[in-house]
Amino acid sequence: MPARSAMDRRGFMQAAGAAFLATLAPERLAALERTDAVYASAFRAPDGSFGVATFSEAGQIVHRALLPARAHGLAGGAEIGRCVAFARRPGTFAYIFDPALPDGGTVIATPPDRHFFGHGAFSPDGRLLYASENDFAGNRGTIGIYDATGGWHRIGEFDAHGIGTHDICVSADGRRLVIANGGIETHPDFGRTKLNLDRMEPSLVILDTASGGLVQKHVLPAELSHLSTRHLALAPGNRIWFACQYEGDRRDMPPLAGWFAEGEALRFAALPDRTIERLGHYVGAIAVNPREGLVGLSSPKGGLVILDAADGRVLAERAIPEAAGVCAGASGIAVSTYSGRLAQTQNALAFDQHLLRIDAAGR
Known about the structure:
By secondary structure, the chain is mainly beta. 8% of the residues lie in helices and 46% in strands.
């Protein structure tokens, strides 16, 4: 699963066009001219409104757009030059926008008996958008399939083979869909309340995208049934990294991250107890820097932990208060914070949990 290229300054400015660049304030245009990559994140503004914004590599705002409510994760479709911000559970909207011009985006909604779980992914050719959804009446996770070539209509769904379906990703060849089923039952009538902490069913699933058929399913063993599998990151060599949050006794020392590949068993990173304690038994986001062979784990309590992507060894730990999103940086792992910090810049925005490095392939 080779890494995709990130949108560089030239690609972004060509995609934006002269008309858009002319609307930027001088300081924002200067920030864009100096950056080598473009990031995106959902945010909450000081006035309580919510939105999505693009940023320079130095963390300076390039552009921002308002959203109807709080968003969570984002997906980038390199081939069609669009990104999607998904509503935070149990929200029902997704906002589709051109990262070079976030204003004027398209809002789509789930069917009445579904809500988004906050994540999604494009097929490599950009024709399909997959979204993690909750069939709350049936108490099962589903993957909604949307036509990204015309109208963003929902054209079908796959069974996620689990509950609490959260993050998803698609293999580089488009043949496989990987799903992190957190195993936690929720229902919009009860907001964000977790309804089954005494009988969780976390799992990691691989589906065939041609048929929706189940290729592989890893159900976590009974002793790890409180380890909710939440977020995913693809690495070279068909390796899939996953990150977890623990819903059990805080005196336990559960593994919080690991990896697997199709046809292989799960392997967990051997994190030291002090690292697990520092993370607060919770990894909020995970990212891979394939060029440098690194995996980044973020936690609002524990900051950033960097692992060796080859064997899961801890290489470094950084105390970053309220660490939120992570993605591959120009060097190492880029980190945003809930308090609005990205790289050297402190913004008057509260970033949400995930940070997207925007792809430029196909532009």
